[in-house]
Amino acid sequence: MANHLFGQIRDRMPGRDAVFAALDAGRRYTYGDVLDVSARFANVFVDLGVKPGDRIAVQVEKSIEALMLYLAAVRAGAVFLPLNVAYTPAEIAYFTGDAEPAVFVCDPGKAGALGDVAAKAGAKLETLGVWHSPDVSAGTLSDRALAAPAVFDDVPRGPDDLAAILYTSGTTGRSKGAMLSHENLASNARVLAEAWRFTREDVLLHALPIFHTHGLFVATNTILFAGASMLFRPKFDADDVMRLLPQATALMGVPTFYTRLLQHPGLTREATAHMRLFVSGSAPLLAETHAEFERRTGHAILERYGMTETNMNASNPYEGPRVAGTVGSPLPGVEIRITDPASGAVLPQGEVGMIEVRGPNVFRGYWRMPEKTAEEMRADGFFITGDLGSFDEAGYLSISGRGKDLIITGGFNVYPKEVEAEIDLIEGVAESAVIGLPHKDFGEGVTAVVVLKPGAMMGEADVLAHLGTRLAKFKLPKRVIFADDLPRNTMGKVQKAAMRQAHAGLYD
Ligand code: AMP
Asked: Whole-angstrom Cα distance, residue 314 to residue 276?
């Protein structure tokens, strides 16, 4: 048996000298480097005692070496578990406690703060320094890899074996680990490379984080399956993107990328003339942004829809109309149906209901949460996404809301419950509600409405100071509003829709 995912990547690779990624300072990373460096890391993992099926948790800044850890984990038959770089040690402790990784890799500068967390979870702590960078001290894992052989016998893995676990925030406050198999990832990469016409000639401008499905799987696996190359950037910066666009053929971004680019005076027809494709996803792209981008550049942004648990489900067409405000039609091999959220009955075309998805892209369930998995899976294999939507007459899907109460800010998911729980711990707070309000730059801005106990005195800065040590930056409210009470319906439920309406113009 071959290694199902890496075997397909290997089969599609161009020659060893072909460029995989262009990095800063003129550094070129070839497909030969991809093979050699991922082999070195895979050897190190095996030396550290990693067995097939073991988890390898990673919280490191974006770098090409960090990306090689993903491929190395897959080659070693392990399960890759990337974690948002913004997570605090307290947040990390939950993930490592739940996933019990054999190895936990962090940035050299964070080893002190995370040593206990790793030890408690029974994981070996290793550090990853960015290679060839004089500013970054080499890490323990980097040192071991430099001394390890550059060849590795890939551990055999079948289509249903796990390749990765990506944590999604849980609606009840507990995060769930979405288990993704080799075929979940491979099937989606095959489909996307084909649907979006990626070839070896393509150069993707990669400015997304690599701890999330979008930058890690949609972007990187598509490039690997097409044998194409990337301009690999540490993060999104509008000036940086505008400077590099002339060397690229494609960009994948969250809607915030596009609103920021529209604010850049350099965004013109000429600056984007050689670009083949602009893709948007992870959050709704405003129809207004789509229209404005087309007016400025002549390019219709291709919007697609997916999620951590399912990879990509639907996409606007490469050829044919890309309709603003829709996410296109189901990708080849993916079935999407709209059901009545209460009864589960399939609804007629045109009606809004729960979006359900079935296909080789749909995950294997939540890590160690069989009851949660069962709650969100129908007996016939359809996954209940939690997103509400409808199909139009032409077969285009529109997403009209989120049943799961999720806030998406700058492409990141924030579950209100988690933020509310932290606010409610502050002395003097009676209760709170966290909502997402329309925000031109971030799509939605996290907003807290706080009710104080009688006699308590506190301002916005006090609330934010408390949350700053507890929550990742992207989860912090952009504004804190103080109120006398929260609006409730007769059943006692807080009426968030009414609150969103009352404060709709806050970020205008
Ligand atoms: P994540 O698991 O972080 O990728 O977040 C998935 C969620 O993002 C989905 O369930 C949707 O609610 C939302 N999402 C992704 N793509 C789109 C899109 N193109 N339009 C609207 N919402 C989207």
From this structure: 20
